[in-house]
Specification:
Layout: E1 12-13, E2 16-24, E3 28-34, E4 40-46, H1 48-51, H2 54-67, E5 78-82, E6 89-93, H3 100-107, H4 112-131, E7 144-147, E8 150-153, H5 182-185, H6 192-208, H7 218-227, H8 237-246, H9 257-268, E9 329-331, E10 346-349, E11 355-360, E12 366-371, E13 375-380, E14 386-391, E15 397-402, E16 408-413, E17 417-422, E18 427-434, E19 442-447, E20 454-458, E21 461-466, E22 471-477, E23 482-487, E24 493-498, E25 504-509, E26 515-520, E27 529-532, E28 538-543, E29 545-550, E30 555-560, E31 569-572, E32 578-582, E33 597-602, E34 607-613, E35 623-630, E36 636-643, E37 651-658
Helix pairs in contact: 4-6, 4-9, 6-8
C-alpha cells in the first residue's frame, strides 16, 4: 500500500522523484519513486543517526556492492545506490503486488500446496543471495512480495556477509524476533542457515497465520525462539517435516537451500502453474470469520485436539503449549461458564521454593516472580507460560522492581547482591551492587515514577541509588531491620517500615534523604509492607491490620481488620479505592482457610467486600500467602500461595484472579 508523502519527506532522492511511502524499517524509510526514464523503483533512505556512523557507511558500501550481484527470478534487483550521500540510499526494482503478510492477514492462511510452491520460490531466491556470499538476515512475511509470476524477496538493506563485522551499533539486533534464528538473537555469527531458519518460520506463518514462536512480548518471543520447540499445530505431512527441519535450533541441523529445493521439487508439480502467484489459494475455511477446515491435506503424525476457546484463560493459548521444559500452568474455568469471582482462574507452577516477591511489568503483559529457589521467572500474563528463568542469585530472591520504562528488571536477594536483567535481550546486565555487612541482604526495592531513583532496603537502612550511574546518593536510617519501601506517586516521598519496635512508618524526602516524620500505629507487631495510595494522599502500613494515614493531616483515618491474625502483604488496586491484603497461616488439622485467602477492602465502606480463595490440594499442612500484586490496569490480582512440609508435601504457586 502506497501512502502519501508527508511534510518531512524528501521530494527527490538522487535522480529519483519520490511519489509515496511504501513502509519503514529499522534502517530507514522506503519510498516509491520514478527513475529518470519513467520506471517505478523502491528507494530506501537510511536514517540520519546511522548515516553519521563512519563504520556503518563503510559496511553499507561493501554490502551494496555485493547485493548488486544478486540475480535470479525471486529477488528484487538492486539497480542504484549512493553510500556517500549525506543520507545514504539504495534503489531496487519496484515489484507490484501484496506482501505475504498482507495476503494472509486479509484472506487467511494459504493452502498446503500453495505453501510448498511458495517455499520453492523463496528457497530459490535465498540460493541466489547465498551464492553471492550474502545472508539476508531479515526474511519475514513483510519482506516477501507475491508478484503475479512468483515471490520476490525484498529489503537488501541489511544483507550481511558471513564473518564480516556487524553493520549496526553495538547491542542492536537486526531482524524481526519471531522470524530470527537463535544465533542471531544471541549475536553469534550468522550463516546461510540463519535464513533457512527464517524460511521455516515464514512457511509456518503462510500455512497457519502466525509465527511458530508468537508471543505477546519480545522476551517471550526470544525465549521461545532460543529455548522452546516451535508451535506447528495445523501443519501436516511433508510441509510439517520441512518446516521442522528448517527450525532446528542448531544451524548444523538445518537443510541447505539446495536441500529445500530438492525436497520441494517432488511436490512442486502438484500445484497448477497457471494460478497467478498473487492469487494463491487459501486453505479451506481459513478466511477470516470462516469455520475452520476439518480435513487436513495429509494424515497427521499424531492427533491434534483443539479445545473450545472459552476454556482458555484469556484466549489464544495453544493446546500443545505445555512441554517438559515449561512449568505447569493450570486452568479451572470450564467451557461455557463464567469464573467464580472468589476463586483463581489460573495457577502458575514451577518454582521449587517459596515465592516471596511479585511484580507486574509497567504494561501489564508480564509478571516477575522471585523465589527461595534462587531464581527469577518471567511469566506471560496472557498465556501463563514461562518466558524465561533467570539464574544468578546464589540464595533466596527477596525483592523485585521493574524500571518505569519496562526495559530493566532489578532483583535483590539474601546473597547480598542487587542484580539487573535486560528485558530487551533477556540477558543479565550486571551486578548493580554488592553489600558486605553480615545482615546486608536486599529485602525490598521501589522505583521513583521517573525512574531516576531506586530505593533499596539493605539490613537496617534504605539506600537511594541513581540507576543510571549505580551511585548511592543518600542513606536513610531508622526502622531497624527493613521490611518494605515505597516511593510516592509524585516522587517526593520515600516511606519505609522495619521489624524493630512498634508498627511505624518512616517518611523521608526523596531528593535529599532528610527524615521528615514518623507515623506510629497501634496493635502488636511491626509493619511488614508499606504502600502509597494511587492519588498519593495517604500512606498505609500492613501488619497488625491495614492502617491508613492521611499525609496532609498526619492523622490515622482507618484501621482495617479481617479474619487474618496478621496481614504481612497488601497492595492498592490501581484506579480504585480498594486494598488487597493477605497473610496468616492455616492452623494445622483444622478447616480454617484464612491462610489461603485474600481480602479486598473497600476504603469508602471501610470493610471487606470480597474474599478471594486460593486453590491448593487438600493437606493438613500450614498454608500461607506471602505476597500480592495488582496488574497496572487493576483487573488482575496475583498472589503467592505456599504450603509448608516435606519436599513431597510442600507446594508453591502463583495464583491469578480476574476482577470485575
Amino acid at each position: 500500500m502506497v501512502e502519501p508523502v508527508g511534510p518531512g519527506d524528501p521530494r527527490r532522492i538522487g535522480h529519483y522523484q519520490v511519489e509515496g511511502r511504501l513502509g519503514a524499517g529499522g534502517m530507514g524509510q522506503v519510498y516509491l519513486a520514478t527513475s529518470p526514464g519513467g520506471r517505478k523503483v523502491a528507494v530506501k533512505l537510511i536514517r540520519p543517526e546511522l548515516a553519521a556512523i563512519p563504520q556503518f557507511r563503510a559496511r553499507f558500501a561493501r554490502e551494496v556492492d555485493a547485493a548488486r550481484q544478486v540475480g535470479g527470478f525471486h529477488t528484487a534487483q538492486v539497480v542504484d545506490a549512493d553510500p556517500e550521500a549525506a543520507a545514504p540510499w539504495l534503489v531496487t526494482a519496484y515489484i507490484p503486488g501484496p506482501t505475504l503478510q498482507q495476503v494472509v492477514s486479509q484472506r487467511g492462511p494459504l493452502a498446503p500446496d500453495a505453501v510448498l510452491r511458495l517455499g520453492a520460490g523463496l528457497a530459490e531466491g535465498l540460493a541466489a543471495i547465498h551464492g553471492c556470499g550474502l545472508v539476508h538476515r531479515d526474511l519475514k512475511p513483510g519482506n516477501v512480495i507475491l508478484a503475479e509470476d512468483g515471490p520476490r524477496i525484498i529489503d537488501f538493506g541489511i544483507a550481511h556477509a558471513p564473518g564480516a563485522d556487524a553493520m549496526t551499533r553495538t547491542g542492536s539486533v537486526i531482524g524481526t524476533y519471531a522470524y530470527m534464528s537463535p544465533e542471531q538473537i544471541r549475536s553469534a555469527p550468522v550463516s546461510p542457515a540463519s535464513d533457512v531458519f527464517a524460511l521455516g518460520a515464514v512457511l509456518a506463518f503462510a500455512a497457519t497465520g502466525h509465527s511458530p514462536f508468537d508471543a505477546t512480548t519480545v522476551p517471550a518471543i526470544v525465549h521461545r525462539v532460543t529455548s522452546e520447540p516451535p508451535r506447528l499445530d495445523g501443519l501436516f505431512g511433508r510441509l510439517r517435516d520441512l518446516v521442522t527441519a528448517c527450525l532446528a535450533k542448531d544451524p548444523a541441523g538445518r537443510p541447505s537451500t539446495a536441500d529445500v529445493l530438492t525436497r520441494l521439487s517432488v511436490t512442486g508439480a502438484d500445484v497448477a502453474s497457471g494460478i497467478p502467484f498473487n492469487d494463491l489459494p487459501t486453505a479451506p475455511g481459513s478466511e477470516p470469520g470462516a469455520a475452520p477446515s476439518t480435513a487436513p491435506s495429509a494424515a497427521p503424525a499424531a492427533p491434534v485436539r483443539t479445545l473450545p476457546r472459552r476454556t482458555l484463560l484469556f484466549g489464544g493459548m495453544a493446546v500443545a503449549a505445555t512441554t517438559a521444559a515449561v512449568p505447569a500452568y493450570f486452568l479451572w474455568r470450564e467451557a461455557g461458564t463464567d469464573p467464580d469471582p472468589g476463586k483463581p482462574v489460573a495457577r502458575l507452577g514451577g518454582h521449587t521454593g517459596e515465592v516471596g516477591c511479585l511484580a507486574f511489568a509497567p504494561d501489564g503483559t508480564t509478571l516477575a516472580s522471585g523465589s527461595n529457589d534462587g531464581t527469577v521467572r518471567l511469566w506471560d500474563v496472557a498465556t501463563g507460560r514461562t518466558i524465561t528463568t533467570y539464574r544468578g542469585h546464589t540464595d533466596n530472591v527477596m525483592s523485585l522492581a521493574y524500571s518505569p520504562d519496562g526495559q530493566t528488571l532489578y532483583s535483590g536477594g539474601f546473597d547480598k547482591t542487587l542484580r539487573r536483567w535486560d528485558l530487551r535481550t533477556g540477558k543479565p546486565m550486571s551486578v548493580a551492587a554488592s553489600y558486605g555487612g553480615e545482615q546486608d541482604y536486599v529485602s525490598c526495592l521501589a522505583f521513583s515514577p521517573d525512574g531516576e531513583t531506586l530505593a533499596v532496603g539493605v539490613a537496617g537502612r534504605f539506600e537511594l541509588m541513581a540507576p543510571s550511574t549505580g551511585r548511592t546518593f543518600a542513606t536513610l536510617n531508622g526502622p531497624g531491620g527493613v521490611n518494605g519501601v515505597a516511593v510516592s506517586p509524585d516522587g517526593k516521598l520515600v516511606a519505609g517500615v522495619g521489624s524493630e519496635g512498634r508498627a511505624k512508618i518512616w517518611l523521608w524526602a526523596a531528593d535529599t534523604g532528610r527524615h521528615l516524620k514518623t507515623l506510629t500505629g497501634e496493635g502488636k507487631g511491626h509493619f511488614n509492607a508499606v504502600l502509597f495510595s494511587p492519588d498519593g494522599k495517604s500512606v498505609t502500613g500492613a501488619g497488625p491490620g491495614i492502617q491508613v494515614w492521611d499525609l496532609a493531616t498526619e492523622r490515622r483515618t482507618a484501621t482495617l481488620t479481617d479474619t487474618h491474625p496478621y496481614v504481612p502483604t497488601a497492595a492498592y488496586r490501581p484506579g480504585g479505592a480498594m486494598i488487597a491484603g493477605a497473610g496468616g497461616v492455616r492452623e494445622p488439622n483444622t478447616q480454617d482457610d484464612t491462610g489461603k485467602t485474600v481480602s479486598l477492602w473497600d476504603l469508602a465502606a471501610g470493610r471487606v467486600t470480597t474474599i478471594l480463595t486460593g486453590a491448593m490440594r487438600e493437606s493438613p499442612m500450614d498454608t500461607y500467602i506471602t505476597v500480592v500484586a495488582f496488574s497496572p490496569d487493576g483487573k488482575t490480582l496475583a498472589a503467592s500461595l505456599n504450603q509448608v512440609g516435606s519436599p513431597e508435601e510442600a507446594g508453591h504457586s502463583i495464583q491469578l484472579w480476574k476482577l470485575p
